[in-house]
């Protein structure tokens, strides 16, 4: 849909926004579990969107780079600016111009992000040509929003600071609509929506907006009419049983990594190597796409590190199993008990749904 909004300039609010932009930096992708019906059942249309022309952007200071490949994930940011109560379109346009100017001031060629959503829920093109690229669905505008991942990710800035406040409903709904459309246009699985902090040392997109990303993935999947498994994002600096599961599975996949429950550089190297071998973008972040490739279905009679991973999870949860890598009767009994407790089919086979319940 070519829905270009015509801007009627009314009285513009003066004053410039101070944008402590979320910093620049990085992210990942997946094939959401198999869609329930084989493919996205629902075609979604582009959200109403204002172009760079609409909000009177300045011309970019260098040529925009169009890459001949689809991006593989969407990265969500917050602008770290004030949680304004002005939800008007005029405010949205003022915001867009302010961001562009602040990015010029950093020496960048244009707005770093591809799209911007105001607190009032107005969706705007950020960097020039981003909208046409997404409409075409085969090219990606190189952005400047996540260092190391600008060639493979679409960046969305959400106006506000979401460390202790949640985004307004209208803004969140616009984010769902925009993400669903981008996923459709680029063939990005609905699970491959990440936060800036997943790839860089930053608080962006704020604790509350970040905490809502699993729901965002589910909401986007629902809008697209697909069924997905949303896995917990596991990455550098984390520790605990979930990290041990990743490490056991990496070993089962032939990677040489110690099982210590701490996600350090060795684990990151192994994750990247595995991702490369699986045809995924090597970003060290174990999101849904990576989990889906990493897990191995194990059943009675099996042995090895994947079985150890299951046993270690069960033991941590208080089940009477020995972490010996041999899927015997005691392990089978514990698996069935766990499956029953989780309202899963108690068949003693640890497939994707049981793995997800174990690592959640
Ligand atoms: Zn950010």
From TrEMBL:
Peptidoglycan recognition protein family domain span: 47-200
InterPro entries per UniProt: Amidase/PGRP_sf, Amidase_domain, Peptidoglycan-bd-like, PGBD-like_sf, PGBDSf, PGRP, PGRP_domain_met/bac
Gene3D superfamilies noted in UniProt: Peptidoglycan recognition protein-like, PGBD-like superfamily/PGBD
Location of the N-acetylmuramoyl-L-alanine amidase domain: 59-206
PANTHER family reported in the protein's UniProt record: PEPTIDOGLYCAN RECOGNITION PROTEIN, PEPTIDOGLYCAN-RECOGNITION PROTEIN LC-RELATED
Record-stated family: Belongs to the N-acetylmuramoyl-L-alanine amidase 2 family.
UniProt name for this protein: N-acetylmuramoyl-L-alanine amidase
Source species: Deinococcus carri
